[in-house]
Amino acid sequence: MAERKFTQQEQVRRQKLEELKALGIDPFGQRYDVEDYTKDLREAYGSCTKEELEEKKVMVKMAGRIMRRRRKGKVAFMDINDRYGKIQLYVRKDTVGEDVYEIVKRGDIGDIIGVEGELMLTDTGELTVRVEKYTHLTKALRPLPEKFHGLTDTEERYRRRYLDLIMNEEARKVAFTRPKIVRSIQRYLDAKNYVEVETPMMNSILGGAAAKPFITHFNALDTDFYLRIATELNLKRLIVGGMDAVYEIGRMFRNEGMDKTHNPEFTTIEVYKAFSDLEGMMDLTEGIVSQAAMDVNGTYEIDYKGHHFSLAPGFKRISMVDAIKEKTGIDFSQDLSFEEAKKLAEEHEIEVEPHFAYGHIVNAFFEKYVEETIVEPTFVYGHPIEISPLAKKNLEDPRWTQRFELFICGNEYANAFTELNDPIDQYERFENQLKERELGNDEANEMDTDYVEALEYGMPPTGGMGMGIDRLTMLLTGQETIREVILFPAMKPNGDK
């Protein structure tokens, strides 16, 4: 094995590590019971005057990473970061003692320390800890990225997220906001008596969505399994079983491309409610998004991708054919033949693939001429039956289904149905999906006879909805790429390692 080579700075830090050992200090520390955090201190004492703080004599015990330090003689100033932010430290040799000050002198930016002392305000009005006890906790053997530029290589930020979180306040904010969004959704649904459940991540049959799967091999059964592309079919089995109202927040895996809004491993929530329908799911989806916005941002108002709009309940609702008509003047609700629709597609530079039927053409028109133009929260409903194998037909026109998608700023955030609970119809839809696979649609569902059998025992009229947690987090934190809201996004292999 080749001998490791260290930079000059790394050599200096390793020398300081040895000096700490000589002083009887464990360079990588022991347990330290933190009692105070910057956020709480600023909220409680940030508005105090210097005299008021002196009178209160607030004692604190904190820990954090050194982000700035300057030492002159017998006095040292430092900034440390904890999980919430920065606070200044004031360390005097005659306060902490000569032996401890020798440890302070061997500190580096990046080291992790614990301090106890009195909260004070400097003459410039900065909240500061006058340190009385100083504890070295962890020696950083590598220097942090340069202070003012940090990690300027975006790819490196994602590869070394730990450094991004150390150096980038915005990255920390997103990381702590995402779980708040998840908790908001859970509280909202729990209050409505939904039950959170878990279903398998590996399935022997591909279904629940139109997507390319990851395939893995189960050695014990000597059988290939799919990593799940959706939780839908298993959750609806639970509705058949009488659980009535269920949801699952979990990882999905789709063997597809990566871009600003797609990662092959992502997180969704799927919700199913017996005796509900499309309208019920619209109300529920609206409530989830609005409540999450209020819980994490304190307002319904939002600025995103250069647009200002509201996430308050009362989202716009429009049918897919009406939305297409508004943009193109073409009315697909008319009784057009496939050949007429195909001719319109060719005239509008839309490629008609071998497996396309009438509904596929309608959907292609929507994707090309409408989707990216939607800014304010909008429920688009009435999708063609050909692209909705698990949704109930429209009773008045069986070409369309009781399905909606929620679009905001040109992106899809949720997909919902009045669920198909007719086992005969469902079997026929699965058969049609098999025909599409034969014609080259590798995202078509497979035949799931067990699910059809479950429906034959009787599933009540049901509403169901799926929503992307990653995209919702992007929206509520103002991020325009999914990699900013996934702590460890999928990356190309690093050729340098």
Automatic annotation (TrEMBL):
Database matches in PROSITE patterns: AA_TRNA_LIGASE_II
Q: Name one GO molecular function term.
A: catalytic activity, acting on a protein
Q: What is its main location?
A: cytoplasm
Cofactor binding note of this UniProt entry: Binds 3 Mg(2+) ions per subunit.
Keywords, comma-separated and alphabetical: Aminoacyl-tRNA synthetase, ATP-binding, Cytoplasm, Ligase, Magnesium, Metal-binding, Nucleotide-binding, Protein biosynthesis
- What's its EC? 6.1.1.6
- Output a single Gene Ontology CC term carried by this record: cytosol
InterPro entries listed in its UniProt record: Aa-tRNA-synt_II, aa-tRNA-synth_II, aa-tRNA-synth_II/BPL/LPL, Lys-tRNA-ligase_II, Lys-tRNA-ligase_II_N, Lys-tRNA-synth_II_C, NA-bd_OB-fold, NA-bd_OB_tRNA
Residues binding Mg(2+) 1 are E405, E412
Cofactor(s) needed: Mg(2+)
Q: Which residues form a coiled coil?
A: none
Instruction: Give the residues the record marks as binding Mg(2+) 2.
Output: E412
Which GO biological process annotations does it have? Answer: lysyl-tRNA aminoacylation
Instruction: Give the reactions, separated by semicolons, that this protein catalyses.
Output: tRNA(Lys) + L-lysine + ATP = L-lysyl-tRNA(Lys) + AMP + diphosphate
Task: Using the UniProt record, name the top-level EC class of this enzyme in a single word.
Answer: ligase
Q: SUPFAM superfamilies recorded for this chain?
A: Class II aaRS and biotin synthetases, Nucleic acid-binding proteins
Does the record bear Glycoprotein in its keywords? no
HAMAP family linked: Lys_tRNA_synth_class2 (MF_00252)
Instruction: Describe the subunit structure.
Output: Homodimer.
Q: What is this protein called?
A: Lysine--tRNA ligase
Annotated source species: Intestinibaculum porci
